[in-house]
Task: structure prediction
Amino acid sequence: MRKLAPYQIFFPIGVLCSALAIGVWLVQNLGWFDAPAMLIHSKLIIGGFLWSFIVGFLMTAIPKMTGTAGARRGEVAVAILLIAIQIVFSWFVDGRPFYLGQTLVVLFVMVFAGRRVLKRTRALPVFFSHMVLAMVLIGRGSGAFSR
Result:
């Protein structure tokens, strides 16, 4: 059996999250959850759908672009756990646990990328500086770097 690339694991998780986000609107009047459907929907799209695709892409592309080892099973497992935390906390009215999960995902991606950048065997693409800026801005928006 061949080893799956991270995107092959995370992209289907993202598709599942998009289906959940749509399904929330279909069952919102059944009383299955306390949070408004709009709140759950937006968190599932951001925390599940978008982050699954971001993490899957970066965990596949960064090792290839830096000439370093691919994602290890433990790293993939941690990333899946962090995405699962995002999905679970999407259903809570209190957004603080969800935003803590956002912060943990940002930090995980920064550590994952940083470890490979330090061990790179290839020149970094020019846009890597943009990725650092994006992670800092995402972290700022999720509360990772704010008071």
The first helix runs from residue 6 to 27.
